[in-house]
Every structure is written in structure tokens, then in C-alpha cells.
Amino acid sequence: MCAEALWVEKYRPKTLDEMIDQEEIVARLKMFVKEKALPHLLFAGPPGTGKTTAALALAHDLYGEDWRRNVLELNASDERGIQTIRERVKDYARSLAIGDVPFKLIILDEADNMTSDAQQALRRTMELYSRATRFCLIANYMSKIIEPIQSRCAIFRFQPLPKEHVIKRLKEIAEKENVKYDDDGIEAIWEICNGDMRRAINTLQAAAALGKVSRIAVYKVIGRITPTEVREMIVLALKGDFIEARNKLRELMISYGVSGIDILKMIHREILNPRSGINIPDTAKIKLADTIGEINYRLVEGADEEIQLSTLLAKIALIGKEIGYS
Question: What is the DSSP string of 164-199?
Fold first, then answer.
């Protein structure tokens, strides 16, 4: 296995042609590169879907070997105040580009963490220096970007990566790093990461450190219980064995150190998952979904986790008795 510190950085696409999925976005960005004309950009979408990668790949394709001399990359979660906009951003924005592209590029990652005052100052800077500088703002939550900035940008919405693309990429990386894996382990990574490629690659690297990437190894490195264990607990409760189900709950919470909220989310997922093997009528699922929502609210408000989850198991046991689960 390679000693590279982070596989996420090692296997990050360097050009737009190397990016997987997001074909429509990549096609639009390639047109900008071809014409050497770029509006201000706003990349929005969930974490790990390629926003920062697309911005850096765009810069590489646009400026070629000179891209580092023409690009200022800032993480707005660290430098999010008005002083940064007035000093670093404004000083860079007023300087001239190097090469045949007539403008520089400023990438503001996690721009949704910028203060309102900083965003107002940025809006004015975008107006004053638009001839010499283009801005690319990256945000997980577009609603946190003020409307005047949104109206000045071409908006690109990134979607979670589809399952087949994530699994294919994970297998490619595993083979290049000579990592042994089974399909069940790769499937477990997908279930956990659900479209977040960065998290998927980090999980793959962490699981590979234990040897073969299997489902057990994946859940072990992320400190989470397996769906099978949660399923066993639910089935025990449905069959009326409340005490044994509660003992299983205590084991999961104490031995594994899993929070009540995480267990609740997994119970919710297993009950509503048609492939979980928990065959109960839709009316029972409706009752349980309603109860889970109530329990979630109590946990968020600070109620005792063990008591609330025991209450949920009692409700599951009562429903099991009503429907004659066996």
C-alpha cells in the first residue's frame, strides 16, 4: 500500500476531463475554458461532490502551467471576516493577470461561512474589479449566500455522486494501491458515505490500514455498529423479547460507544428499508415512524438516551404483538 498521506489528494482529478459524473457542469465549464471568458461562479451542493475539485481543475485548464500564479485560493471558514476581503482579496483583485487570459481567479471555499458584513464587502469588490478578476465561490448551503452575490454569479448546483460511479472509483483506487477488498466492504462504504466521494475515499484508506476492506472493517474504523446488529435488536423487540432487545441496546451504547441519535437513525433506516428483511405492514411502519420522530425530538431537547430508546423498543414490542409478528 502506498505511503501517500491522503488518497483524497493523490487521486483528486487535476483537469476537467478527469472528473467523474457532473457531466453537464463539466461541459459548461469547458465552454468557458475554450472561449477564455468566465463569469463569476457559485458552486453549491453537498460536501464531497466535486465543487473544490471542479474549481481547481477549471483553473488548471484555463491557465495551464501558470495557474498557481493566477489563482488565489482562500478557505472562507478560516478567513471569513471583512478584514480579509478589504485587504487580501482586494489587493489581489486589483493586480493584473499573467499570460493570455485577461483576468485572475479568486476561489473562496466554504463561502457560506463568511459573515454578512464580509459578503457585503465582497459584493462591492466583485463590482469594482470585474474586468481584472473573476470570483468562484464554493458553498454547501447556497441559502447562506446573500442574494446580491447570487445574482452576480453563474450558479452551478452539484448533486451527490451516483452509486455506480462511487463504487467504480473506489475499486480503481483499491486496485492501484494493491488493497484487498470484497464487494460487501465497498457496498458498506457507499451506504455510509451516500454520494460523498471525499468521505468514501478516506473511509477506504482507513479500512485498508486494517487489512482487507470488508464490511466489518469499514464499520470498525468509523466507530459505527452494523445494520445487522440493529436489525437483530429490532427483531427481538418485534418478537416480544423486550428485555433481550434492551440488553442488546445497552451493549451497543456502552460497548461500542454509539450515541442514541445514531442508533435512532439506524433503527429508522432499517424499519423503512424494504431490503432489511423486517416484514411488517405499512400501518405499523407509519406508527413507528411517528414514534421515532417524537423520540428524536426528545433526544435533541436533552432527554436521557437510554430511557427514550427503551421506550421506542417497548413501542416496537407492542406493535409486534398487535400484528402477531413471528
Answer: HHHHHHHHHHHHHTT--B-HHHHHHHHHHHTT-HHH
Spell out the SS3 assignment of 48-101. CCCHHHHHHHHHHHHHHHHHHHHEEEEECCCCCCHHHHHHHHHHHHCCCCCCCC
3-class DSSP assignment, residue 150: helix
Q: How far apart are CA 183 and CA 248, in angstroms?
A: 28
277 phi-psi bin (left φ>0, alpha ψ -120 to 50, beta other): left
CB-facing half-sphere around the CA of 89: CA atoms within 13 A: 31
Model pTM score = 0.77
Asked whether the beta carbons of 91 and 56 are under 8 A apart, the reply is no
Q: Are 16 and 61 in contact (CB under 8 A)?
A: yes
pLDDT in tens, 111-122: 988 888 888 888
| Domains of the chain, earliest start first | 22-157 (3.40.50.300), 163-221 (1.10.8.60), 227-323 (1.20.272.10)
> Which segment of 11-25, 85-99, 207-221 scores lowest on mean pLDDT?
85-99
Distance CA 59, CA 56 (A): 5
* pLDDT, tens digit, 9 for 90 and up, residues 279-307: 889 999 999 999 999 999 999 999 999 99
Q: Do residues 50 and 88 make contact, with C-beta atoms less than 8 angstroms apart?
A: no
C-alpha cell at 178: 494493491
Residue 78: pLDDT band (50, 70, 90) is low
What is the dihedral sign for C-alpha 121, 126, 128, 129?
positive
Q: CB–CB of 133/104 below 8 Å?
A: yes
